[in-house]
Design a protein that fits this description.
The chain is built from 13 helices and no strands. It is an all-alpha fold and 301 residues long.
Length: 301
C-alpha cells in the first residue's frame, strides 16, 4: 500500500496518474527536441522555440481564461514573470535545443537533471547560510559527475561537443535561477496563467535572437512538425498541467522524484529510438549526478 510521507493516508491514484504523465512526457521531450533540431529537419533552435512559445502561450492562456483563472498580472509581477520566463525557456530550454544539434538527447536530460544542484547553490548564496557537509558533498559530487559526462568530449577536444556540453550546463543554471526567483516571489495570478505569460514573453526572446543571428525561414520536415507539435501540446500544455496537478495532490518530495526518473527514461528512449550510445562514462556520470541530486533533496527534506 502506498503511503504519504506522514504514513497516514494513501497517495491518491489521480495524483499518481498525473505524476506518471510527467515521468513519461517530460522524459520524451529531450528526444523530441533532438529530432526537431537535427540536421536537415528544416527548423533552427530559436525559430522552433519562438513558434513553440507562441502556440503554447495562446493555448495555455485560453485554457486559463475558460477556467475562470486570474490571468491578468499586476504591474509589479511583470518583471518576475518576464525574467523567469526568459531564463526558463530561452536561455534554459533554448540552450538545450541548441546543444541537441550535436549532443545526444540522453546526455541533455542528464545535464538538465543537475538543475537542483545549481538551485541549491544559488539558495545557499542568497540565504547566506553555512552549508552542511552533506550539501557540500552533494554539490561536489554533482560537479564531478558533470566532468565525467563531458569526459569523452574533453578528451577528444571535440569543439562542437564541448560547446554543447557547456551550453547544457548554462541551461541548467538558467533554469535553476528561474526556479529560485519564482520561489522567492509570490505572483498574484494562477500558476497556469503565469506559465502562459512566461511562454509569451519567451516567444519575444526567441524571436529577437532568431532575427539578430539571421535564422532562415523554416521549412520543417514532417518529422520536425510532428516533434514540434508534440512539444507544444504534450511538453508545454499537457505535461505542465499534469505537473501542477500532481503538486496539488501529492507531497512535494514525491513529485520531485521526476528528477531521478526523467534522465533514466530519456537515456533509454535515446538508445532505443535513435541508437544513441550508452557508455561507461555515461553510466558513471549519471550515477554520480543522480546520487548528488538525491543528497540535495534529502538535505532539504
Amino acid at each position: 500500500m502506498i503511503k504519504t510521507k506522514n504514513h497516514k493516508d494513501q497517495l491518491p491514484l489521480l495524483g499518481l496518474m498525473h505524476l506518471g504523465i510527467v515521468y513519461l512526457v517530460w522524459s520524451s521531450t529531450y528526444l523530441a527536441m533532438r529530432i526537431l533540431v537535427a540536421e536537415g529537419s528544416g527548423f533552427t533552435p530559436f525559430t522552433a522555440g519562438a513558434a513553440r512559445m507562441l502556440a503554447a502561450s495562446l493555448i495555455i492562456l485560453v485554457i486559463a481564461y475558460f477556467r475562470n483563472s486570474n490571468i491578468w498580472p499586476k504591474r509589479g509581477d511583470l518583471p518576475i514573470i518576464i525574467v523567469s520566463g526568459i531564463l526558463f525557456w530561452v536561455t534554459g530550454n533554448g540552450m538545450i535545443m541548441w546543444a541537441e544539434q550535436h549532443a545526444h538527447s540522453g546526455l541533455a536530460a542528464l545535464m538538465a537533471s543537475t538543475t537542483p544542484l545549481w538551485a541549491a547553490f544559488l539558495e545557499l548564496i542568497l540565504s547566506k547560510r553555512r552549508p552542511s557537509w552533506q550539501l557540500i558533498a552533494s554539490l561536489l559530487l554533482g560537479l564531478a559527475g558533470i566532468v565525467v559526462l563531458m569526459g569523452p568530449s574533453l578528451a577528444n577536444f571535440a569543439r562542437a561537443d564541448i560547446l554543447s556540453g557547456l551550453a547544457l550546463v548554462c541551461a541548467s543554471m538558467s533554469i535553476a535561477a528561474a526556479s529560485v526567483i519564482q520561489s522567492r516571489k509570490t505572483i498574484q495570478i494562477s500558476v497556469l496563467a503565469m506559465s502562459g505569460w512566461q511562454h509569451l514573453f519567451a516567444f519575444f526572446g526567441f524571436l529577437i535572437i532568431a532575427l539578430v543571428i539571421g535564422d532562415p525561414f523554416p521549412h520543417p520536415t514532417p518529422s520536425a512538425w510532428l516533434s514540434w507539435s508534440y512539444l507544444v501540446i504534450f511538453g508545454s500544455v499537457f505535461a505542465f498541467t499534469a505537473y501542477i496537478t500532481a503538486i496539488k495532490l501529492l507531497p512535494i518530495n514525491i513529485v520531485m522524484t521526476y528528477a531521478y526518473v526523467n534522465p533514466v527514461l530519456a537515456l533509454f528512449l535515446g538508445w532505443w529510438l535513435l541508437n544513441e550510445p550508452i557508455t561507461a562514462s555515461t553510466i558513471g556520470g549519471a550515477a554520480m549526478v543522480l546520487i548528488a541530486v538525491f543528497g540535495i533533496f534529502w538535505h532539504y527534506k
